[in-house]
């Protein structure tokens, strides 16, 4: 007969290797001194895989990983953050750890995010900061009021370095896409796009703003094209849509280019969000970010 009394010579034990790893990572990160997120600092970071934390005004806001190169990943972040309203890159700093083990298997950034959940958190890991271009089908979706792109929308006064002179629309769009600190997605494969993008235009300034580029491009295209600035990125399509989430849009009309201020509507804030999904965590890799 088995006794109902506990047996004093036996007890349960649950091995938590992940907890031990998270504790070790946090302990090693804790004494590091944050460095400004700028090129001077990044020149001192070795091109190795690892994990890192971004800090805004000395407060941790994001935890990420670089599977191949920490400086490359951090440069992507610096570029993205430099093109936002309400956020100064001068207030952003970082710390990092070189981790040569298999990052995909260990997922150290996920362990840290969970560990920090009740200790200051890492709010940008759950507010959309790490998400790349959501795609055409999401252009009309209202983002939450506390989404990263709603809190820090794109800056239409951001400048791009462009050689003054004559350009074809398609060539200029490709150059601007590579220079802007946020993504520019545009129609390019349709018959209308391939034809209309051969139109010529003239760039006067060596550093035009995104707003000036929008007006230049729309002015060179036939009636029916629209350049739209959404909270996190810009788009150009042959369409006429009043986007509820747009910051602004530009249209070609028989009398010239018309800029319209958008409603910039947002959905209610999400409040206390869940831990980031596998999709959002997976966004933080070393591939060039679709900004």
Question: Could you give a quick summary of the protein structure above?
Answer:
This protein has helices spanning 17-29, 39-42, 70-81, 103-106, 108-116, 148-151, 169-179, 191-196, 210-220, 278-282, and strands at residues 35-36, 50-56, 59-66, 92-98, 165-168, 184-186, 200-203, 225-229, 234-238, 248-253, 256-261. It has 291 residues and is of the alpha+beta class. It folds into 2 domains: 17-126, GIY-YIG endonuclease; 136-261, Phage tail protein beta-alpha-beta fold, CATH 3.55.50.
CATH topology call of the largest domain: Phage tail protein beta-alpha-beta fold
CATH architecture level-2 label of the largest domain? 3-Layer(bab) Sandwich
The unreliable regions are 277-291
**What share of residues are in beta strands?**
15-25%
Determine the N-to-C terminus distance. 69 Å
- H/I helix tally: 10
**What structural class do you assign from the helix and strand content?**
alpha+beta
Domain tally: 2
Order of helices and strands: HEHEEHEHHHEHEHEHEEEEH
Gyration radius, in Å = 23 Å
Number of strands: 11
- The portion of residues assigned to helices is 25-40%
Q: Strand order within the widest sheet?
A: 6-9-8-10-11
Task: State the major sheet.
Answer: 5 strands, mixed
Q: Please write the CATH class name of the largest domain.
A: Alpha Beta
**In one word, what is the shape?**
elongated
Mean pLDDT: 89
């Amino acid at each position: 007969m088995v006794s109902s009394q506990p047996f004093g010579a036996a007890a349960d034990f649950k091995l938590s290797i992940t907890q031990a790893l998270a504790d070790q990572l946090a302990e090693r990160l804790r004494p590091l001194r944050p460095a400004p997120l700028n090129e001077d600092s990044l020149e001192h970071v070795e091109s190795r895989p690892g994990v890192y934390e971004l800090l805004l005004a000395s407060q941790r806001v994001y935890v990420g990983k670089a599977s191949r190169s920490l400086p490359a990943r951090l440069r992507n972040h610096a570029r993205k953050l430099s093109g936002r309203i309400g956020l100064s890159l001068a207030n952003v700093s970082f710390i990092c750890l070189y981790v040569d083990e298999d990052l995909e298997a260990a997922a150290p950034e996920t362990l840290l995010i969970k560990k920090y959940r009740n200790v200051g958190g890492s709010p940008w890991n759950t507010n959309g900061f790490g998400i790349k271009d959501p795609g055409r089908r999401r252009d009309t979706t209202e983002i939450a009021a506390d989404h990263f792109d709603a809190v820090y929308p794109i800056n239409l006064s951001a400048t791009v370095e462009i050689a003054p002179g004559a350009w074809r629309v398609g060539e200029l769009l490709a150059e601007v896409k590579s220079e802007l600190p946020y993504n520019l997605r545009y129609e390019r494969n349709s018959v209308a796009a391939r034809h209309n993008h051969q139109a010529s235009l003239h760039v006067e300034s060596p550093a035009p703003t995104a707003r000036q580029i929008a007006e230049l491009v729309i002015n060179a295209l036939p009636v029916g094209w629209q350049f739209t600035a959404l909270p996190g990125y810009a788009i150009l399509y042959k369409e006429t849509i009043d986007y509820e989430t747009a910051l602004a849009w530009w249209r070609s009309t028989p009398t010239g280019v018309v800029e319209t201020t958008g409603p910039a509507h947002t959905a209610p804030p999400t409040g206390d969000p869940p831990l980031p999904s596998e999709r959002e965590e997976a966004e933080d890799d070393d591939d060039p970010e679709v900004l």
